[in-house]
Amino acid sequence: EIVLTQSPATLSLSPGERATLSCRASQSVSSYLAWYQQKPGQAPRLLIYDASNRATGIPARFSGSGSGTDFTLTISSLEPEDFAVYYCQQRSNWPPITFGPGTKVDIK
Amino acid sequence: QLLESGGGLVQPGGSLRLSCAASGFTSSSYAMSWVRQAPGKGLEWVSTISGSGGSTYYADSVKGRFTISRDNSKNTLFLQINSLRAEDTAVYYCAKGRATTVFFDYWGQGTLVTVSS
């Protein structure tokens, strides 16, 4: 089973600041990694797939990078609606499909 | 759109059948999955079924107790949950695979399953 580790657990930033979130895999997942955003009481929303491709309707301020075991989600300038929990997910070697534990981005 | 139903309060050892009605796309073209989230916790993949229904996959934590199925004529996904345990308490989401993958581009609103005596 591929274990995903996310850091930091919590990121406290102000609107307008840049957010950099990390996801590390226990073994290579090539580029088969996705990022999701989840707000309280809502279902997750797909942001990035295959490490760097924005999903339909996702603003350009969200970008993903990385391959192998180390990945980054960057939010270039935080908008008020971006404060949420972010999860990474791999589909390289499944089952099982695995998710990271999440990074909470909250308002400083 | 994905709309789940069937959740509720059930005693340990009990059973439930969750449903997920899909609209706006031909579900037989896509793998469909169930993902759950225990209260205050992260996301946990539960099960996936191929577009045709011919292949199914399960997390070890539910293997032998949960059964995923689909009725493509009705654009509906199911999850039969048996031998429920307290640790199965969660919001259960159905999710559509993007293209031919198991990245999830559409999610339902979730249905809460509570296992308690």
SSE map:
The complex is a heterodimer of chains A (108) and B (117).
Chain A: E1 4-7, E2 10-13, E3 19-25, E4 33-38, E5 45-49, E6 53-54, E7 62-67, E8 70-75, E9 85-90, E10 98-99, E11 103-107
Parallel strand pairs in A: 2-11
Antiparallel strand pairs in A: 1-3, 3-8, 4-5, 4-9, 5-6, 7-8, 9-10, 9-11
Chain B: E1 2-5, E2 8-10, E3 16-22, E4 32-37, E5 43-49, E6 56-58, E7 66-71, E8 76-81, E9 90-97, E10 104-107, E11 111-115
> Which two chains form the greatest contact, residue counts included?
A-B, 23 and 22 residues
Order of helices and strands of chain B: EEEEEEEEEEE
What sort of overall outline of chain B do the alpha carbons produce when their principal axes are compared? globular
Biggest sheet descriptor of chain A? 7 strands, mixed
Strand content of chain A: over 45%
Cα-atom radius of gyration of chain A: 13 Å
Radius of gyration of chain B: 13 Å
Helical residue percent band of chain B: under 10%
Q: Which strand-content bin applies to the residues of chain B? A: over 45%
End-to-end separation of chain B = 34 Å
Q: Secondary-structure element sequence of chain A?
A: EEEEEEEEEEE
SSE class of chain B: mainly beta
- Summarize model confidence as the mean pLDDT of chain B: 95
Overall description:
The complex is a heterodimer of chains A (108) and B (117). Chain A is an all-beta fold and 108 residues long. Chain A has strands spanning 4-7, 10-13, 19-25, 33-38, 45-49, 53-54, 62-67, 70-75, 85-90, 98-99, 103-107. In chain A, strands 2, 4, 5, 6, 9, 10 and 11 form a seven-stranded mixed beta sheet that branches. In chain A, strand 9 and strand 10 (98-99) form a beta hairpin. Chain B is mostly beta strands and 117 residues long. Chain B starts with a strand and ends with a strand. The interface between A and B is medium-sized, with 23 and 22 residues.
